[in-house]
Amino acid sequence: MMDNYDESDMVYCPYNKEHKMLRNKLQQHILKCRVIHKDTVDLMVCPFNNSHLIPEPQFYQHTQSCEDRNIIVHYQTSAPAVLSEDTRHPKIESEENWDDDESVPDYDPQVYCSRANIVREPNGLFPAQRKAFIEQEKRRHFGEDYEEEKKPPKAKARADPRPTPYEPRRPYSRRQ
Ligand SMILES: [Zn+2]
Ligand SMILES: [Zn+2]
């Protein structure tokens, strides 16, 4: 007779796994079974679903595997994850940020290409090379006369009537 029921409608008595019954019979069964087992087995109420009655020895394992827990934990962890994903990738809007982040993992190639004549990768440079690279990019952006340190403007660049984008400028390694 029992075999005619859908297995998903069948539940086990929390006191005794030998007691198998329809889900809607469980509450009534527990009331009877509790009388037998109340001195030997403590039932605890699942924190995720108060219709889950768990024998104390299995309570911790149930709280780890309860199907209702999955819904709650997913809800609790997914919301903050979205926030941290946002805050971990600040927009780089000016070259000042080059100084702040040594590795520059998230630089925007579109912004960078829009102001650079030649796309060059600053990653992997030594600090002194990196500093020179940043100053060179500032000159590229603000004009050839821009100097962070007091140095005379390069005469060669001014004499050139047609500045070419690919003219090699100050090599990194000379600026130590
Ligand atoms: Zn029972
Ligand atoms: Zn549960």
Automatic annotation (TrEMBL):
Pfam families: zf-U11-48K (PF05253)
Gene Ontology terms: biological process: negative regulation of DNA-templated transcription; oogenesis; transposable element silencing by piRNA-mediated heterochromatin formation
GO terms, molecular function: tRNA binding; zinc ion binding
Biased composition, class Basic and acidic residues, residue ranges: 85-94, 132-161
Positions of the CHHC U11-48K-type domain: 10-37, 43-70
Region (Disordered): 83-106, 130-176
UniProt-listed InterPro entries: TRM13/UPF0224_CHHC_Znf_dom, UPF0224_FAM112_RNA_Proc, Znf_C2H2_sf
Keywords: Metal-binding, Zinc, Zinc-finger
Biased composition regions of type Acidic residues, renumbered to the chain: 95-105
The protein's name in its UniProt record: CHHC U11-48K-type domain-containing protein
Protein source organism: Drosophila simulans (Fruit fly)
A cellular component annotation (GO) from this entry: nucleus
Key word Zinc present: yes
